[in-house]
Amino acid sequence: MERLHKAMDFFIRHQTTLSYSMVSLLTAGSEQIFSSVVFKCPCNSGNMLYGFSFLLAPAFILLLLGYMVNARTWRLFTGKCSQQKCLQRSPWGTCASSCQLLVQITAKASVAPLTWIAVALLGANFYECAASGNSRIARLFCKDNGTDCQNQLLKTPCDKELSAKISGEWLSLKAQSQLIGWLLIASIMTVALISTCVSRCCSPVSYLQLKFWKIYSKKEHELFEIKAKEHATKLAERNTNCFFEATDPAPFHTPSNEDWQKISILYTFDSEEQYYSMIHKYVSTNRGNSPKFNEEGQDLTVLAFVDEGQASISGL
């Protein structure tokens, strides 16, 4: 039982890393299936289009799915185009905060497509097919050997012996693909490390306070879900009972549209009177009626939001 608790604690502490790892493993497995079962290079003039379609199209689809399944995307866009919001909010502030959040969403959504491209390049099947139909690569391999060499190059993905013969003094198409794949992986890891170091260095909160923030945000999210279900259930029961019993409804308080708008906007961290969420800020400023509620949040250098129980801070 104690080992089970330790395992659960480990999964909870590292759930973000484990979720990324799971997405990467599933993507890599899917690429292997596509490469070995579905992909069949035509070995003709359509090589380039066919190969790059398998290399880039699935990655683009995975990127779109990453946007769609991320709750932050809908938190960012829901209600943003309504006329009332456009009149109430400063376009510069909204644009700055939205772009900041969009960068974070894109970084998370890019895990699967980048994994697909990297694994596909290491496997080399897609690139080898696409590159064999590229005119520039054909000139590099064939030089002055004429169209006969170029026609043979189109057939190299289907003939390994022919591929070794044409490669000659240049790197083979498979070697080129694997080299590009490793460079891509190294570049991604370098950018990730540098961005993490810079963001942590510019963090407005300490390591332990950030840890507390994440715990608070997770608990607030869980309690919000529970309370929202309870409140919705009571309201639904009252309305259905009144409908079937033909009675007048008893008074029932529910948050107004204005209240929902106040807790749904993006939260900006203030080091002087810090709050850990928009709900925290809302209840601490007389349900958002205090002038401080509107005065704060003008500093867009630090943007924080709660998504699926996790606290995220811009630059953290």
From TrEMBL:
A GO cellular component annotated for this chain's UniProt record is: plasma membrane
The domain of life for this entry's organism is: Eukaryota
Transmembrane regions listed in the UniProt entry = 50-70
Q: What is its main location?
A: membrane
Q: Which GO terms describe its molecular function?
A: monoatomic cation channel activity
> What's in the keyword line of the UniProt record?
Ion channel, Ion transport, Membrane, Transmembrane, Transmembrane helix, Transport
GO BP: ATP export
List locations, semicolon-separated: Membrane
Which topology term describes how it sits in the membrane?
Answer: Multi-pass membrane protein
Task: Enumerate the InterPro entries for this protein.
Answer: CALHM
User: Would the keyword Magnesium turn up in this protein's UniProt record?
Assistant: no
Tell me which family the UniProt entry assigns to this protein.
Belongs to the CALHM family.
* PANTHER family, per the entry: CALCIUM HOMEOSTASIS MODULATOR PROTEIN, CALCIUM HOMEOSTASIS MODULATOR PROTEIN 6
Q: What's the protein name?
A: CAHM6 protein
Q: State the organism of origin.
A: Chloropsis hardwickii
Taxonomy of origin reads: Eukaryota, Metazoa, Chordata, Craniata, Vertebrata
